[in-house]
Amino acid sequence: MWLPPEIWIHIFLLATSTAYTPQLYEIDYIPFHNPPQEQERAMLSLADQTMLALSLVSREWHLWTVQFLFQTVRLSWYGSRRLHKGLQQSASGVRCGQWTKRLELSVIEHEDPSYLVKPADIFLSCPNIEILVKYEDDLLPHSAEGVDLARLRRFEWYYARYRDGDHQFATEDDDPSRGQDFLREVVRNAPNLRYLSLVKRFRGNPRLGPPPSSLLLPALVTLHVQSISGDVWTEIETWSFPRLKVLRVDAAFIGFTRLSGRMWPTVEVVELLQDQGSIPSPSEIPFILAICPNAIELNYYIEYVQPPPVDAFVSASVQVVRLHFATNHDLRSPTEDPEEDELWNHFSAHFDMLAGPMFPALKRVVLCGPWSFVAENERFELFKQTLVGRSCKLDSE
Q1: What would the pLDDT profile of 210-223 be if each residue is shown by its tens digit?
Q2: Which of 87, 152, 308, 385 is 20–30 Å from 27 (CA)?
């Protein structure tokens, strides 16, 4: 049966897309968006393998699928030479590197010391890259000096781990800056960067490096900062974000900001991240809204944030609150008496906060994640009635 190429391409996309696939290429903020977990990574890998298999069926199918095969490329220790050459080949009159939108860096060692493939080489072959991800297992030094990054819109940067985890063993070839020099160069050369994520996922002591440099990020809209150490905070504290609208942070960021006193007056959306490694404080919500005095939207994981006292603060600007009901097993210790159920006491305190005088401008509460069990409790019904009484809309996503 003959079908036009457009139909075949649509079929290929349906066969190889997962629920997470669109988020790989998202530039702007999505509430509660997190990196793919193990199951999601497995599905993405299977989708890639399926697309590769489809490309081998016939010459025509290869021409139709090649744009998707090169949409994301990963520079690692294996296959770098073949990748570099493949990006410079052509299909249907278009160089394969032209299709690439996302570059992932995960270089533990060089595959061939006589044929070094660097991120700068990939950028030269792939002029349309919009998303750069530098993973924590990207251990070798890179340079972005002289590279045109005007098309780069999103940069996800992970503080490079050590080869033996927390014990800080490194080889002489490893980047002594743990990726911070590369971070600085990319930010300096990417004037149109809209989304910047800075994450540290291992303990390790802060490094003692060169003094931070003052940088201007003129187009940045979203800043994601998670589990950072003092050396990373010292770096970004000197940076300017004149157009920043979205701030995604955790307890570590709040702790550093308490010491510095920095204000974030341009921020309109605040998200408190799912923080597994810290003891939540009831002062987190009042503090983050105090340093973001013009925030109109507050998003947080309800089981990971302690509700403040009902008279702790008043936010006259917040109009929307999103609650994500991701499970916190430390809270899930129900007793036979529902009135003594720690989890529901926790929920009720949050509901009282939202229904009380703290948010006089509140117009909308949005429930996200696995929240359906909440609707079965009578205390939630009382909360719902209170919101309706003050003309506040209750939605779900």
Answers
A1: 666 789 999 999 99
A2: 87
The torsion of the CA quartet 24, 30, 36, 37, rounded to 10 degrees, works out to: -170
Other CB atoms within 10 Å distance of the CB of residue 53: 13
Q: Which residues of the chain have pLDDT under 50?
A: 336-339
Contact 192, 152 (CB under 8 A): yes
Taking the mean position of all CA atoms in its chain, how far away is CA 364? 24
Exposed, middle or buried by CB within 10 Å (0-12, 13-18, 19+), for 215? middle
Are the CB atoms for 394 and 367 separated by under 8 Å? yes
Q: What is the DSSP string of 143-192?
A: --TT---TT--EEEEE---BTTBTT----TTS-TTTTHHHHHHHHHH-TT
Displacement of CA 342 from its chain's centroid (Å): 31
Pairing relation of β-strands 297-301 and 102-106?
A: unpaired
Three-state secondary structure readout of 46-108:
HHHHHHHHHHCCCHHHHHHHHHHHCCEEEEECCCHHHHHHHHCCEECCEEHHHHCCEEEEECC
Structure-token pair, residue 223: 């800043």
Largest CA-CA distance found in the chain, in angstroms, rounded: 72
* CB neighbour list of residue 119: distance below 8 Å, 6 or more residues apart: 75, 103, 105, 142, 143, 144, 147
Grouping H, G, I as helix, E, B as strand and the rest as coil, residue 26 is: coil
- Contact (Cβ atoms closer than 8 angstroms) between residue 132 and residue 154: yes
| Cα 8 from Cα 3, distance rounded (Å) | 7
Mention every residue, 6+ apart, whose C-beta is less than 8 A from residue 226: 197, 198, 199, 200, 248, 249, 250, 252, 253, 273
DSSP string, 329-340: TTT----SSGGG
What is the identity of the amino acid at 146? Answer: G
Q: Are 158 and 183 in contact (CB under 8 A)?
A: no
Instruction: Tell me how far the alpha carbon of residue 368 is from its chain's centroid.
Output: 17
Q: Where are the alpha helices (DSSP H) in 230-316?
A: 230-236, 251-260, 284-291
Q: How far apart are CA 353 and CA 237, in angstroms?
A: 32
The SS3 call for residue 308 is coil
d(C-alpha 181, C-alpha 234), whole Å: 13
